């Protein structure tokens, strides 16, 4: 089997930094603003998210290639992908509770939140749209997960400092976080053009 | 959400202003930034959301007696995904140029927290017509927010509205860049909070 490692590496870097889902495609913002208040929660979320992302992308790829294309069901991809993600999250929740209660206690809360994260549906949809092969899909999913984690951690470390800052009253809370995100996004535009795929 | 019965008009108003999806509840934020770099895209997505939200609320409300509470989440998801697929296919056929730009975000409506939340909080407990009104109000509230944000971004970023030139001169390029979206939403949200505090004595959006 021929594996193009350069392409895989480029995919990871480009989906984590250059086409960062949060700052250039604006997906997953609800969770991004929801859990980035504390460092601890955002680290937990990033780990859980990256794991779920890679597994569900793999499942979706297999179903798409071996079931949906032969049966010509590709027009149902939205329903099927969201179904796969929801089913996987639900079963991961149940299995984790049984097998490792300590891990469930730490990361279980984030699992339930993940189903409403747009990135988790966007990645399989993009994989299907761009006709990535299995390894490329994995690389793309991993890169997206890392990118989301990076964004969360940067945001959380700034917001923790912001707690003690003297922000004008109408801007307290969300509005100032949006402006912050805007500034970070501006910094991320500096990565554009680093790799052209 | 107060428990006392509200008239249908009040329900629509509540969705448009009181519990405006973007500026008050701060959910479903992703598209509010992604597609608002032009009025045309913003309005197109807003209308799709009005349709999906109303239809989902009606369908869930019709089915509320048959849905077992334990499996309600997958069922809600499937209903939402069904209507999103309808919109997706319709747009791909009849509005090709817009679909090319915002197609991904149309498909992403499926993971909208606001649609899911209304199905859970309201439609699964109330009669069909009032659920439809509630969904319509929330959808229109979202549409209004999209119009406001994209109005400012397109006017400042390109000097045009719906693609027609309004002002000449060099525009603020930052407003149509990704970063400008965050800035615009943040500033508008702060502005609405300020109005609410100054003139209506509210406490502003609680946020997350």
What would the average pLDDT of chain A be, to the nearest integer?
Answer: 83
Number of strands of chain B: 2
Contiguous low-pLDDT stretches of chain A (5 residues minimum) are: none
Q: Biggest interface: chains and residue counts?
A: A-B, 48 and 47 residues
Please state how the strands of the largest beta sheet of chain B are arranged side by side: 1-2
Major sheet attributes of chain A: none
Tell me the distance between the termini of chain B: 17 Å
Strand content of chain A: under 5%
Q: Categorize the overall geometry of chain A.
A: globular
Percent helix range of chain B: over 70%
Terminus-to-terminus distance of chain A: 22 Å
The ordered H/E elements of chain A are HHHHHHHHH
Helical/strand content category of chain A: mainly alpha
- DSSP strand tally of chain A: 0
Give me the number of helical elements of chain B. Answer: 9
Overall geometric form of chain B: globular
Mean pLDDT of chain B: 80
Set down the secondary structure blueprint.
The complex is a heterodimer of chains A (197) and B (208).
Chain A: H1 5-18, H2 21-24, H3 29-35, H4 39-68, H5 77-99, H6 101-114, H7 118-130, H8 134-162, H9 174-188
Chain B: H1 8-18, H2 21-25, H3 30-34, H4 39-63, H5 72-94, H6 96-108, H7 113-123, H8 128-158, E1 160-161, E2 164-165, H9 178-200
Antiparallel strand pairs in B: 1-2
Helix pairs in contact in B: 1-8, 4-5, 4-6, 4-7, 4-8, 5-6, 7-8
Give your account of this protein's structure:
The complex is a heterodimer of chains A (197) and B (208). With 197 residues, chain A is an all-alpha fold. Chain A has one domain. In chain A, 76% of the residues lie in helices and 0% in strands. Chain A contains 9 helices and no strands. In chain A, helix 4 packs parallel to helix 7, helix 5 packs antiparallel against helix 6 and helix 7 packs antiparallel against helix 8. Chain A is globular, with a radius of gyration of 18 Å. In chain B, helix 4 packs antiparallel against helix 8. In chain B, 71% of the residues lie in helices and 2% in strands. In chain B, strand 1 and strand 2 form a beta hairpin. The mean pLDDT of chain B is 80. The radius of gyration of chain B is 18 Å and the shape is globular. Chain B has a domain of 143 residues. Chain B contains 9 helices and 2 strands. Chain B is an all-alpha fold and 208 residues long. Chain B has a two-stranded antiparallel ribbon. Chains A and B meet through helix 3, helix 5, helix 7 and helix 9 of A and helix 3, helix 5, helix 6 and helix 9 of B.
């Amino acid at each position: 089997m021929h594996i193009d490692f350069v392409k895989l590496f480029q995919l990871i870097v480009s989906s984590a930094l250059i086409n960062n889902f949060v700052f250039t495609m604006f997906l997953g913002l609800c969770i991004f603003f929801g859990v980035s208040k504390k460092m601890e929660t955002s680290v937990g979320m990033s780990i859980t998210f990256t794991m779920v992302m890679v597994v569900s992308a793999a499942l979706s790829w297999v179903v798409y290639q071996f079931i949906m294309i032969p049966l010509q069901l590709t027009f149902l991809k939205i329903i099927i992908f969201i179904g796969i993600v929801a089913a996987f999250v639900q079963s991961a929740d149940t299995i984790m509770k049984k097998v490792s209660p300590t891990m469930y206690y730490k990361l279980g809360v984030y699992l339930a939140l993940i189903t409403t994260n747009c990135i988790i549906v966007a990645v399989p949809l993009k994989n299907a749209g761009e006709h990535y092969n299995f390894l490329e899909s994995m690389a793309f999913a991993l890169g997206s997960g890392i990118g989301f984690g990076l964004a969360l951690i940067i945001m959380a470390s700034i917001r923790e400092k912001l707690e003690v800052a003297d922000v004008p009253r109408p801007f307290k809370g969300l509005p100032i976080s949006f402006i912050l995100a805007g500034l970070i996004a501006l910094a991320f535009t500096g990565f554009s053009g680093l790799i052209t795929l | 959400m107060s428990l006392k019965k509200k008239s249908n008009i009040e329900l629509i108003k509540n969705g448009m202003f009181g519990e405006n999806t973007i500026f008050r509840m701060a959910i479903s934020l992703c598209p509010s930034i992604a597609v608002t770099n032009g009025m045309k895209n913003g309005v197109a997505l807003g209308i799709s959301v009005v349709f999906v939200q109303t239809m989902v609320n009606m369908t869930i409300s019709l089915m509320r007696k048959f849905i077992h509470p334990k499996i309600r989440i997958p069922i809600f998801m499937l209903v939402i995904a069904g209507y999103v697929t309808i919109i997706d296919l319709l747009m791909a056929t009849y509005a090709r140029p817009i679909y090319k730009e915002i197609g991904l975000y149309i498909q992403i409506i499926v993971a909208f927290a606001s649609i899911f939340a209304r199905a859970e909080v309201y439609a699964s407990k109330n009669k069909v017509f009032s659920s439809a009104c509630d969904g319509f109000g929330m959808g229109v509230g979202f549409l209004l927010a999209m119009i406001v944000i994209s109005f400012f971004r397109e006017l400042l970023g390109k000097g045009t509205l719906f693609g027609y030139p309004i002002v000449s001169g060099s525009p603020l390029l930052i407003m149509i860049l990704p970063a400008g979206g965050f800035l615009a939403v943040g500033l508008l949200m702060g502005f609405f909070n300020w109005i609410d505090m100054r003139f209506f004595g509210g406490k502003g959006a609680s946020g997350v």
